[in-house]
Amino acid sequence: ADLVISEWNLSHDRAGTDAAMRTSYITEAMHQMLRENVSIACLYHIRDWHIDPRTFAPFMPPSAVRYLDYLWNAHPQYQGIWDFQGTIRPTYFVLKMLSRLTGAELPVQGGHHTVQIIPAYDRGRDMVNALVWNYSTEGIEDERVHVQIDGLPEGNWHLQRQILDPVTTSNDDAERIRMVRNERFENVRRLDDRFE
Description:
The chain is of the alpha+beta class. It is 27% helix and 30% strand. The longest helix has 17 residues, at 19-35.
């Protein structure tokens, strides 16, 4: 049987203005759903949108209409992939990075209680993509990370490390998903990277 989650995201009172925490939460939630074999999960919601309370008045109690009016017209919204003005939020770029994890998932050894990694080898593209994130419900601290990907077919590999910048005001892909390492290696079966 398929496991379907019809709506998921941070609650309205926890969504807040911390874009780095939201992007880590989205990644962690997707990782947990992947581990639990969730078939379909619908992120709530696509775009922030104001409502007209009169639309809901004919079929909802007045207290519920007042709450919706407050929630969507007065309370700050941070859950949409796009905001009220149609500007892309960092969540879009997290989903874009997750979409690059194609192919077979590679095994992971070691780790840390807040730092997670999903590496995947796409044989058709002869490419490994790995997503690393740091998330904890008890707060996040900076961590030193050593990533080692073993068991690759021997050959020439190109290592690129990109980071998601959730706080830049630019929505240019190259600014949000910024290249910080770009190196080529010859005749190797393993790739190593260390960063904070």
